[in-house]
Structure formats: structure tokens, C-alpha cells
């Protein structure tokens, strides 16, 4: 036996020495941690696994009491259990969280057994399992919040459609010098800010309407770079590193730009006195990785754990909504990717976004120099339109907007009613329908009506992309107008759809 053990065992009688020697010979080689604690709470033996678990050499423990080795340990919950076992001589088992001097944590499954010398304390490191459980529970919490956020945003978009559209209709009727017009413009501006918040909530909830196309992530980032430099400001030095080959993926360009913009703004805010921002793109066999690293103030563990939660912010009140990074999380998740963060206080933060690449051989199609403009003159002109929405106020305001522009509007509050109306209208040209409705949804309604009228054109109104009601593939191929509805956007989409050629 080595020196420290000999010093400890010399304090014991011959019988006790023999008992301890037997324990040492059979248990000192186990992977499971083992401690032999005397009735006076003195360390009689600790094995190598215990050294690893406690991050302390046994020479600092043997012969000392637990209170001497770890001041204040007698206040820990697990020590009360040890007292109970020492008194009742009944085995106990528990999970124990251990905080190391550097602030990091470990979790151990402890089994406490009575022994003639005092106690045997067996420890199994379950830190990896606990961290996985915490990650899973955190993901469940985010999922629950996301569902709530998506539902609230969808309902709020319907209300905003009514507020914004009716307000705009009244504003259009007033003279520029009318005091009421100025007041109503303020209502519109407030409504637009509210609509921006609902878009962020929908992004977090992975309910944002996506229209993915094949694109090169390198081109997206380089195309946005000048705007990002202006947004971040001159006090931050920016560096961009791109791979030599294109990173082709099927994604929504606008949402990708939103991800990068939000990450850049977050980095800027973390460097109030200036610093460096590094953006690097890399490609693997199946994924593209976007890395955004700053030299800012960094985050502690608690902040890092909550950084993707909606409305969580470390900024002063009124300085931020707390939706920037939650929006990033939602968009990336909806695209089938992942986002992770590494950060320490005073040492900056690194966000890594991984997104799936398109199959090998995919080519980004060239885009036309300018969109066709031949639809601009088709304002109303007596076109017959059927509007369908189960929300009465949305149905009313969408119908009013179209009617004010010269369209002949029919309306229905359900798919069943829409089929009945369509049967009585011979010149129906366009169906404008909500995506998600009780019973038959918008896509099913459109398909049913096109069996009888193949030339019927369709425009979907949607507050979010509900995967149960319409697939992302259908959404990508459909003509869409997003809620909240505003007259200009609705009329523009209607003109475009009516001018399009059915394939």
C-alpha cells in the first residue's frame, strides 16, 4: 500500500486494517467511484474514479474530514442523506448535483451504504445523461412556447388584417391636409410594427410561410454584405471567408437574409465599443455551415441556456424585443437545420448554423433581369373573384378591398358554401381562399373547384404554413398573400395572379 493509505490505516486497529485492506484490493480498480467514510466523517479511502469525479487528488482527502476538505459540505442536501444512513444504517440512493470551484457542474448517481467503518459512498458519473435530459427538456419548452407563439401570431394576423385594411381604405378617402388622416397614418405605422412582431413570432414557431428556391448561399451572403457593413457600423471590423465552390441549397432567400442580419445585429450589440466580426461559410458532404463569431462581451451559462427563447433579452428596457435570436432558431429549424452557440463572458460568442445542401448536381437557375409588369393595368376591370375565409372580419375586409378596386366579389365563409356559390357563378376567374379552415382547407377546395373549372386561378391567404393543412411543396408552388392583409399587397397579388398563364 502507498504512503497516504499506510498513514491512515495506522490509526486503525488490526481487525479494521484487515477489513480496509480487503476493500482496497477489490474496489480500488473499479471505474465506479468509491469512498470509505469513517463515523467521524473522515476519508479513509478514495479510489481513482473518485479523484476524477471530484477533480482532486486523493492525497488532499485521505485522513481529512469531509468538512475540512469541502467547507460547508454539511449544508448540502446529500449530506443530510448521509447523516440519515449513518444513523439508521439503511441504504439510500440519490442523484446529486456537484458544483466545482470553477462554476461548472457535474451530476452523480450516489449510492450510500452502511459499513462497520462508517459509510461506503459509490458514485457514478451521469453528467452526460443529465445534460442530454436538460437539452431535451429545454427543446420541449421551446416547442411548447413555439406552438403558443404561432397560434397567437396567426390569430393576431387576422385582427391586424382588419385594422390595417379598413384604416388604409379610410386614409385613401381623406385629403392630405385632414388632421384625421395624420392620426390614421399613425395607426397604420403602429399596425405595421405589430405585423413585424407577428412575423418574428411566426418565424420562431417555424410557421413562417416559406417559398424555397435553389440558390447559392455564397451569393446570398455576398449580396447582403454591403448592407451588413452599413448596419454593423464602422467601429466593427468585418471579415468574410467563403469556400471556392458554390453552396447550393433549396431555401427561402429572404429568410436566409433575415438569419444573417439578426446574427450580425446581435454581434454588433455585443460589441458596444467596437470589435471584430468574422463570417465564415464552409461546406460538407450534406450541409453548409454559416459561422458568425464576434469579439464581444460574451454570455454566462444561464444567458446562453436561454438565448433562443422569445422575449428573453439582456438589453435595457425598450432597447430590444428579445425576438432576434428566437427568430433565427425558428427559421433554421423550419429549414431542417440546426443552430448552436459557444460563448464565455469576456471572450465573445460564436453562432454556428448548419443547413442541408441540395442534392449533388443541383444548379441554381438564372433569374430574369426584371419581373414582368404587364399586369399593372388590370385594376378591377370587372373580374369576378370568390373570397373564402372562416373569419368573418377577414372575409369582410378582403371583400371590401377588392370591391373598392372594381372587382365583382362573391364571398363564402366555408368550403361548402364556396362550392355552392361557385356553382351559381358562370364567369368566376379567381378564387382567393384562406389556407387553414375547418373541414376542407384551401388547397382541397381549390383542387375540387378546378375539376369543374380548370382555368380557375387561385390565390391563397395564409397567416402561417400549417404542415397538416398544406405541404411545403404545395406552398412553394402556390400563389400566396401573407397576412396581415393590407390593400396594396392584396391587390398587387390579385393583379399578378389574374395576369399569369396557367400551366
Topology at a glance:
Blueprint: H1 3-9, H2 14-27, E1 33-38, E2 43-46, H3 48-54, H4 66-69, H5 77-88, E3 92-99, E4 105-115, E5 118-125, H6 127-173, H7 179-204, E6 213-216, H8 217-232, E7 236-241, E8 248-251, H9 253-269, E9 275-283, E10 287-294, H10 301-306, H11 324-334, E11 338-343, E12 349-356, E13 384-388, H12 392-404, E14 408-412, H13 415-424, E15 430-434, H14 442-452, E16 457-462, H15 472-477, E17 480-482, H16 487-499
Parallel strand pairs: 7-9, 13-14, 13-15, 15-16, 16-17
Antiparallel strand pairs: 1-2, 1-5, 3-4, 4-5, 6-8, 9-10, 10-12, 11-12
Helix pairs in contact: 6-7, 6-12, 7-11, 8-9, 9-11, 13-14
Detailed description of the structure:
- This protein has 16 helices and 17 strands.
- The chain has 503 residues and is α/β, with parallel strands linked by helices.
- It has four domains: 3-125, Beta-Lactamase (2-Layer Sandwich); 130-204, Orthogonal Bundle (Helix Hairpins), CATH 1.10.287; 213-356, 2-Layer Sandwich (Heat Shock Protein 90), CATH 3.30.565; 384-499, Rossmann fold (3-Layer(aba) Sandwich), CATH 3.40.50.2300.
- It has a five-stranded antiparallel beta sheet, sandwiched between helices. A five-stranded mixed beta sheet has the order 7-9-10-12-11, covered by helices on one side.
- The longest helix has 47 residues, at 127-173.
- The protein is elongated and about 110 Å long.
Amino acid at each position: 500500500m502507498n504512503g497516504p493509505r499506510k498513514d491512515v490505516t495506522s490509526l486503525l486497529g488490526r481487525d479494521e486494517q484487515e477489513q480496509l485492506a480487503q476493500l482496497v484490493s477489490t474496489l480500488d480498480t473499479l471505474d465506479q467511484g468509491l469512498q470509505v467514510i469513517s463515523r467521524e466523517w473522515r476519508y479513509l479511502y478514495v479510489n481513482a474514479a473518485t479523484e476524477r469525479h471530484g477533480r482532486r487528488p486523493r492525497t488532499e482527502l485521505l485522513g481529512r474530514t469531509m468538512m475540512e476538505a469541502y467547507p460547508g459540505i454539511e449544508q448540502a442536501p446529500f449530506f443530510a442523506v448521509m447523516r440519515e444512513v449513518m444513523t439508521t444504517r439503511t441504504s439510500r440512493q440519490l442523484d446529486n448535483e456537484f458544483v466545482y470551484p470553477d462554476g461548472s457542474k457535474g451530476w452523480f448517481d450516489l449510492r450510500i451504504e452502511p459499513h462497520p467503518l462508517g459509510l461506503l459512498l459509490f458514485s457514478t458519473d451521469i453528467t452526460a445523461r443529465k445534460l442530454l435530459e436538460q437539452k431535451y427538456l429545454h427543446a420541449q419548452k421551446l416547442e411548447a412556447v413555439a406552438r403558443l407563439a404561432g397560434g397567437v401570431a396567426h390569430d393576431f394576423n387576422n385582427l391586424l388584417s382588419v385594422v390595417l385594411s379598413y384604416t388604409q381604405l379610410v386614409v385613401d378617402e381623406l385629403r392630405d391636409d385632414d388632421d384625421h388622416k395624420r392620426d390614421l397614418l399613425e395607426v397604420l405605422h403602429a399596425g405595421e410594427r405589430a405585423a413585424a412582431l407577428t412575423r418574428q413570432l411566426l418565424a420562431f414557431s417555424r410557421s413562417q410561410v416559406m417559398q424555397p428556391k435553389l440558390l447559392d448561399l455564397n451569393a446570398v451572403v455576398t449580396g447582403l454584405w454591403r448592407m451588413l457593413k452599413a448596419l454593423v457600423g464602422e467601429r466593427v471590423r468585418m471579415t468574410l471567408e467563403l469556400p471556392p465552390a458554390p453552396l447550393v441549397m433549396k431555401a427561402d432567400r429572404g429568410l436566409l437574409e433575415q438569419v444573417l442580419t439578426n446574427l450580425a445585429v446581435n454581434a454588433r450589440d455585443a460589441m458596444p465599443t467596437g470589435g471584430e466580426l468574422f463570417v465564415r461559410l464552409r461546406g460538407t458532404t450534406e450541409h453548409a455551415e454559416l459561422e458568425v463569431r464576434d469579439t464581444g462581451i460574451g454570455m454566462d451559462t444561464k444567458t446562453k441556456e436561454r438565448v433562443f427563447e422569445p422575449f428573453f433579452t439582456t438589453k435595457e428596457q425598450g432597447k430590444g424585443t428579445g425576438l432576434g435570436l428566437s427568430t433565427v432558431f425558428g427559421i433554421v429549424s423550419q429549414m431542417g437545420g440546426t443552430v448552436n452557440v459557444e460563448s464565455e463572458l469576456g471572450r465573445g460568442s460564436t453562432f454556428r448554423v448548419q443547413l442541408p445542401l441540395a442534392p449533388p448536381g443541383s444548379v441554381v437557375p438564372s433569374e430574369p433581369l426584371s419581373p414582368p409588369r404587364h399586369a399593372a393595368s388590370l385594376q378591377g376591370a370587372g373580374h369576378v373573384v370568390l373570397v373564402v375565409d372562416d373569419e368573418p372580419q377577414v372575409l369582410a375586409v378582403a371583400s371590401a378591398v377588392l370591391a373598392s378596386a372594381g372587382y365583382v366579389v362573391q364571398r363564402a365563409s366555408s368550403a361548402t358554401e364556396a362550392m355552392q356559390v361557385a356553382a351559381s357563378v358562370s364567369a368566376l376567374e379567381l378564387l382567393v381562399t384562406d389556407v387553414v379552415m375547418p373541414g376542407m382547407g384551401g388547397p382541397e377546395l381549390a383542387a375540387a373547384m378546378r375539376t369543374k373549372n380548370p382555368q380557375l386561378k387561385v390565390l391563397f391567404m395564409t397567416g402561417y404554413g400549417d404542415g397538416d393543412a398544406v405541404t411545403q411543396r404545395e406552398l412553394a408552388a402556390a400563389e400566396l398573400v401573407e397576412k396581415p392583409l393590407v390593400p396594396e399587397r392584396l391587390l398587387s397579388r390579385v393583379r399578378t395572379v389574374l395576369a399569369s398563364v396557367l400551366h
